[in-house]
């Protein structure tokens, strides 16, 4: 029998003030909340722990993510939901860049209120454009990159995804790689496992790295990513978790939990009252 | 004043039995032969030197290349014109592979007589598909690569090309890079500067590397490529040549010639009667 929680090393656990929470595969799968997950989020809040949802979705705008969580009984402020699009939006706003988009049409609303001046320097934002990855669209993005000395923001670097027909299909990372090769300009990733994405989550929480814990089901993007940003991380055995994932990274996750409920119990027990 | 020929090092020149000849920018530009080029080819032949044309074109079938040369007064056997498509065709035939194509439609005739059995192992051949680089077409190629354990043949790796509107546009290399990233399978290049492409040219000539000379206008693809294959190379100051190109590679070209006529004179003078 596997216990609900296994900790790895780390004799003295610091106080936990905030949690960065992956949601797909941790809080829900598809439209169904995972058993005990909604109550677990409520326990986190009752313990006074701040929450920021960190998701790599590149086909749903933040509004849709917030609405999906609300339908399951998890009410969270839009500001506490961080997607690659929202992180890229913040960077575009802070840098005063005029974006050229090659993204999923559903994400347009996340960037709707940007109003850069016409002479602002350019940026190319590449996400999961799906069938929108045509030669003409890719070439237009390429020309902005090389002619306008544009910044290059990638919402994802995934190689492939399991498609509706059960087969692997090309994901956004392939097209980011194509544009990087042709333009000889490296893209900056906005999303897990990029350290800047975790830093943006910490800013939402108002926490230092050693005051936060990441909870996720993806040992690379969630756990190794958080740890590279100096944040302790708990791997849950739900969602995309496969047996032995915890041994695939070094150092291993701070803890391995059966599910979100077990992860929350472990965190709450380590929180200064 | 610049002399017609400058040699670099190489005290004793070996006997020259065959010439590998780049054609675009060396024999002609567009549809117009360069001054003295047609007569220079005739002088090579009169000296008993064998000829193989080595071109990186990925939008014209071999038949069209042969016809273009014939219109200019250069009659050459189809077998002595090597394009990336013809080199890939040979590899597919020798390996008994069943090809999946993502290439320019004009190249289809170069592969028309391949007849692999239905159960032959697969190969993906990527060339300059232009507007044919759609998400669906790229995804179909990706699926053959990852599901069928296919060989991956690239007809080119160019990042970009000068388009009809005078601006740079994405070239085939970007899409080769996309598929390499997503599939984690490296492509094999059929074309200059791949050593295998020069080796195929030597096979056409029936020459050892030290019995042949490459003549080209592209210091990287033609000259560095040939030299990496152990073949001496003469850079001509026509076509895409830009002042100082000869200093961009180490070792430098064996000789720098004003044009094909000067290169041929230099070679003929070094040929054993």
What brief labels describe this structure?
2 domains, 15 strands, Rossmann fold, alpha/beta, 273 residues, four-stranded parallel sheet, homodimer
Q: Overview of this structure, please?
A:
The structure is a homodimer. Chain A is of the alpha/beta class and about 270 residues long. Chain A has 2 domains: about 120 residues, 3-Layer(aba) Sandwich (Rossmann fold), CATH 3.40.50; about 100 residues, 3-Layer(aba) Sandwich (Rossmann fold). Helix content of chain A is about 30%, strand content about 20%. The first copy, chain A, has 8 helices and 15 strands. In chain A, the strands form 4 sheets. In chain A, strands 1-15-14-13-2-5-6 form a 7-stranded mixed beta sheet, sandwiched between helices. In chain A, strands 7-8-9-12 form a 4-stranded parallel beta sheet, with helices on both faces. Chain A has a two-stranded antiparallel sheet with strand order 3-4. The mean pLDDT of chain A is about 95.
Order of helices and strands of chain A: EEEEHEHEHEEHEEEHEHEHEEH
What fold name goes in the CATH topology slot of the largest domain in chain A?
Answer: Rossmann fold
Report the helical percentage of chain A: 25-40%
As an assembly, this protein is: homodimer
What is the CATH architecture descriptor of the largest domain in chain A? Answer: 3-Layer(aba) Sandwich
Give the total of beta strands of chain A: 15
Amino-to-carboxy terminus distance of chain A: 33 Å
Task: List low-pLDDT spans of chain A.
Answer: none
Strand order of the largest sheet of chain A: 1-15-14-13-2-5-6
What is the CATH C level class of the largest domain in chain A, in words? Alpha Beta
Largest interface: A-B, 31 and 31 residues
Q: Give the domain tally of chain A.
A: 2
